[in-house]
User: Fold this.
Amino acid sequence: MNVLIVGCGREGSELARSIARQGHAVTVLDADASHFDRLGLDFPGRTVQGFSIDRVALERAGIATADAFVATTQSDNENIIAAKVARDVYGVKRVAARVYNPGRREVYERLGLATVTSTSWGARRLEQLILHPHVIDMEQIGQGEVRLLRIQAPAAWCNRSVAEVLDGSGVICALARNGKAFVPAPTETLQKDDLLYLSIPNSRLAEILALNPNE
Assistant:
């Protein structure tokens, strides 16, 4: 996957390093070249100096061939403008933006833009929005040994019972289908487009993230 990140602050640099470690091609765009020092000498991706809302700079950074775009500058307005340009002008499929003012989040999401406001887990959530948009990591319990997730039912689980899919090492706490939520019985058969609320051990997180709702 080709990922373009604008803004190389704390969250942008953390996100870039994490995604690059997973083997994705990452380009980071920032107006201040000194910010690229945060990436470290071993960063395998590209860096491009330029402004996030400058289309010439965006094109030098490869936005025309980007599979995903994340705006993490220090300006809410700049992030939203850049995200809308990525989605509406260049047709980037996966777009997310960092928003510092929580009061603006609802307005931006009405525009169809995925946003993150929390400073404590912003980079982690942005990564999930880009790499695993069908999964929401809702909560870590204890010291992170247990995770609470919301996921779209993976294709591999459809037409199988609740009891089958997790083999006892996890629980489907709730299921939402056709706008209604309920606690499923072990014999409940999962369907395409079901939203599942899972409690799983952290050791199964990578396995769940790898599941695809469309394959």
About this structure: The longest helix spans residues 76-89. The chain has two domains: 2-131, 135-210. The radius of gyration is 19 Å.
